[in-house]
Amino acid sequence: MQRVLNWLGGGSMNTSDVTLDDMNLDFMIPQGASTSGTVTIGNDVNASADLTFDISFESSRDVDWISAAPSNGTLQPGETADIIITINGSGLTTNFTSATMKIITNDPDESSLGIPLYISTINELRLNFTLYTGWNLITIPVENNYTASDLAALIPECDMIAWWDASTGTYKTFIVGVSPRPARPLTLILQMA
Q1: Phi, psi of 120, deg, nearest 5
Q2: Where are the domains of the chain?
Q3: Model's pTM, two decimal places?
Q4: How far apart are CA 82 and CA 61, in angstroms?
């Protein structure tokens, strides 16, 4: 089945037909960080002409902090392209910001599309864990110079730090207020036999 526009008075014209996989994007980034998301744009498999597109951004503020790659292109019928949306949070303050990704196409009935972008910039990242009765394995990437007592001091209401010692095949534990403070960083303790 071809998509055909019929004009009053006879005749026809081949057309393109834009498809999008996502109609809004939500981002949450720590202040000063960058992140990205993907939108897939396509030309319907039943289209009878190539689709051209051009992407720009609109916001109540300057939009130099957001970009798309590729920002324009041509797609044959049935072809798709992943558009990478990159948010550079270095110029954004802690707050909520929004923008619109505007897509201009040669699709006669969808020549201008707008995809809302919602960006929450936060000054810290909080993680919530649900703990169940029994063992819970939680790993947190840390600097190599933390000791168990240093790490325990950074985690509110932490009673114990446990780690796996691969050289002995056992768990090691540090109990807050009971265990002596290790003199070396955890990575060195883990390497000891």
Answers
A1: -105, 120
A2: 4-122, 148-191
A3: 0.56
A4: 26
E-strand ranges in the chain read: 4-6, 12-14, 18-20, 25-30, 34-43, 51-58, 66-69, 72-75, 80-88, 95-105, 112-122, 160-165, 170-175
Looking from the CA of 177 toward its CB, the CA atoms found within 13 Å total: 3
> Of 169, 69, 66, 50, which Cα lies nearest the Cα of 118?
66
Contacts for 52 with CB less than 8 Å, ≥ 6 apart:
16, 72, 73, 74, 75, 105, 106
pLDDT tens digits along 121-140 = 887 666 676 766 665 556 65
Instruction: Specify the CATH number of the domain 4-122.
Output: 2.60.40.10
Measured CA to CA, the distance from residue 3 to residue 18 in angstroms comes to: 12
Eight-class DSSP state of 65: T
Amino acid identity of residue 96, one-letter, is F
Does the structure show a pLDDT above 90 at 72?
yes
pLDDT of 118 > 80? The answer is yes
Residue 18, burial from CB neighbour count under 10 angstroms (0-12, 13-18, 19+): buried
Quick check: 146 and 185 in contact, CB under 8 A?
yes
